[in-house]
Design brief:
Distance between the termini: 63 Å
Number of helices: 8
Mean pLDDT: 89
Low-confidence stretches: 9-19
Length: 273
């Protein structure tokens, strides 16, 4: 009798799990060539060296994308961006974006994404230079690609899974205790990892715009890179927020690995502020 009750309970849990998961068509993308690149300011030599060491340790070939330093953009440069339709004039007039945020945006739409567009028959993975890259990233990512939603435009190898934001805007890693007295400083989760977003039988979460994923480790194909580049122009808000908005409106199909394969190192000070 106990065995029957146990089996019934197990079946019920399995049904509930499958109901809560997203169901989409899956495809094997693991045979595609994977190219790697990371965005880095030339002046951030220590960060460049650290990222290179991780990629070399993983046995990967890579390309370095020289980042645009927002603070070097002159008023004339900004006016040119507006004139060319790259920067929304209303946003520029209100001075909504920090120079560093503009620099990050330009680094992606004018450098990283065009590189990915050229890699037409490949998957291009773009990192920021403050990430932690596992030594077996190639093996793990290819394994995940064996069962990937066929409609994907962008894949996040990490998406701030359970990272939190403080009231002052600081990002706190997922291992910070939340039961301490100072836990009230936490504002919200950047990306909740509830299994209702899980694509059944896969390590992928389907993003719906409620998750600020972060562009610190993402993968695109040539055609999706072109689509994303076009949708990201003109610049209207920080790139992470803009991607989140496009995903929420159903204009981009996005998925994130959970557990995340690449995580951001929040102990390294930001270079975009």
């Amino acid at each position: 009798m106990k065995i029957l009750i146990y089996l019934s309970f197990t079946v019920l849990l399995t049904i509930l799990f499958l109901v809560s998961c997203s169901s989409v068509d899956l495809k094997d993308f693991s045979a595609l060539d994977i190219k790697y690149q990371f965005i880095n300011l030339k002046t951030a030599k220590e960060r460049r060296e650290n990222t290179e060491n991780q990629l070399k340790l993983a046995g990967l070939k890579y390309h370095i994308v020289d980042a645009v330093y927002g603070k070097d953009l002159s008023p004339k440069d900004i006016d040119t961006l507006v004139k060319n339709g790259i920067y929304a004039e209303k946003v520029k007039q209100k001075s909504i974006l920090k120079p560093g945020e503009i620099g990050v945006y330009l680094s992606n739409i004018e450098k990283a994404l065009p590189n990915a567009i050229k890699n037409r028959d490949s998957i291009t993975v773009t990192f920021e230079d403050d990430v932690v890259i596992p030594i077996d990233i190639e093996t793990q990512f290819k394994q995940a690609l064996k069962a990937t939603p066929s409609d994907w435009d962008i894949l996040y190898l990490g998406c701030y899974n359970n990272y939190r934001v403080t009231l002052t805007g600081e990002i706190i890693g997922p291992y910070m205790p939340t039961s301490l007295k100072d836990s009230k400083i936490y504002k919200y989760l950047l990306c909740a990892t509830d299994d209702k977003y899980r694509v059944a039988y896969t390590p992928w979460l389907q993003l719906d715009g409620s998750c600020i994923a972060g562009a610190y480790a993402y993968a695109v194909r040539g055609d999706s890179a072109k689509k994303i580049k076009e949708m990201l122009t003109p610049i209207r808000q920080p790139i992470d927020n803009q991607l989140t908005e496009l995903i929420g409106k159903g204009k981009l199909n996005a998925y994130c690995l959970n557990p995340e394969l690449v995580r951001v190192n929040t102990t390294i000070p930001s270079t975009i502020r």
